[in-house]
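Hey L., structure's done. Input below.
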Amino acid sequence: MIERRPLLTFVSHAVVLTGIAIVAFPVYMTFVASTHTAQDIVQAPMPMLPGPHFVENYLTALKGGGSGPGSTAPVARMMWVSLVTALVITFGKIAISLLSAFAVVYFRFPFRMLCFWAIFVTLMLPVEVRIGPTYKVVSDLGMLNSYAGLTIPLIASATATFLFRQFFLTVPDELVEAARMDGAGPMRFFKDVLVPLSSNSIAALFVIQFIYGWNQYLWPLLVATDESMYPVVIGIKRMISGGDSGNEWNIVMATAILAMIPPALVVLAMQKWFVKGLVDTEK
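Output:
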């Protein structure tokens, strides 16, 4: 039984509230800046309360056509590119990792473990080491400024393959024997038994990989040189050009707030399955 101590409760709540304030205050100030004019933001002191230009600034950001020295491309298009990129990367990583883990665990073929460790060793190679050769391949294949170029080099995941392999190893052999006795082939067993059992892990990986795909910066920075293929993260960077006074910071901040919304919605919508997939040990 946990003993309730008022002082300990107060301290723990104070620490939690302090952490929330530290994280939430920059987000609040970003929202405040997105509701004022650019002139109001650069003056000292900066307003601490939301202004009257909320609808105007967000419509300007979504439709594009601002007057700043940086990119004025429509943010709605950028968010669409980011959404497509994140979803393709997410579903691609999950599908490839499920199939590769299934092959490594349930099929017997020469150099099976060597193949698995070859996949696993790629975790030791940072993106910066292989980004040059990858860019050369994508460029030679004519995939610059395309969804294929933004997504295909990123859809393989050694981490997800390892996680699914470890989960498949805990599945009782009796399920395999029962499926074989019922006449189920390998893909039927995979589709009807393993995938449903992996639903919590898939949900947790979906959240992680969606945020990973949405927040991609370095790779799109090289591959996307056309404004029509900017993800929203790159769009924010392209909007900033020159000195502070020359940028439309209200539009930049509105874009930043818009860029936070889809990942936040995914986390909120899948929070239950995300937590369960990380901590649930029932098989």
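The chain has a mean pLDDT of 85. The longest helix spans residues 75-106.

-- N.
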